Amino acid sequence: xxxxxxxxxxxxxxxxxxxxxxxxxxxxxxxxxxxxxxxxxxxxxxxxxxxxxxxxxxxxxxxxxxxxxxxxxxxxxxxxxxxxxxxxxxxxxxxxxxxxxxxxxxxxxxxxxxxxxxxxxxxxxxxxxxxxxxxxxxxxxxxxxxxxxxxxxxxxxxxxxxxxxxxxxxxxxxxxxxxxxxxxxxxxxxxxxxxxxxxxxxx
Length: 203
Known about the structure:
The strands form three sheets. Strands 1, 2, 4, 5, 7, 8 and 11 form a seven-stranded mixed sheet that branches. This protein has one domain (3-201): Fumarylacetoacetate hydrolase, domain 2 (Alpha-Beta Complex), CATH 3.90.850. It starts with a strand and ends with a strand. By secondary structure, the chain is of the alpha+beta class. The protein is globular, with a radius of gyration of 16 Å. It has helices spanning 11-16, 89-97, 103-106, 122-125, 152-162; strands at residues 3-7, 26-30, 51-53, 55-61, 77-85, 87-88, 112-114, 118-119, 130-135, 138-144, 170-172, 180-181, 187-192, 195-201.
């Protein structure tokens, strides 16, 4: 399983971190060890003191895709959920300042949270998909696909032009504005529409 992540796919999020809106999708990857196993505790990492949540819509690839067009890209997706791309923001800032890759800030063990999978409906994907993250019972992030810079179709077309997408691969499609810090004792919950697809207690 490969995990593809999209950076700066919401203009408001790029602005809140002081980043320019990208002229093409920004793609980075996580290893399969980044996925928190179902039922496992999430433990605050020892190497950061500034852990940030980033809620995202996550697509699961259902069949092999290579050099696909945007017109039929959604036919390669079989499920959707919400997840968290955890970021060690202090580590990331240090790496960015030195012009170094972000893996130590983004791709560490258990840095990817995956919610309950729901069947993907290509027709529904054409409408606005609402998703959100609650922190300790309060809304922390609220997003909609209408605010995405690059659509699901464009992302799949772009990624499959460089990498073969295989069944089971995941695409984290970017986070809206509102990212922020979390601490041991916090509880995070991810919603697709009004349905809660995961709840996570930080140890």
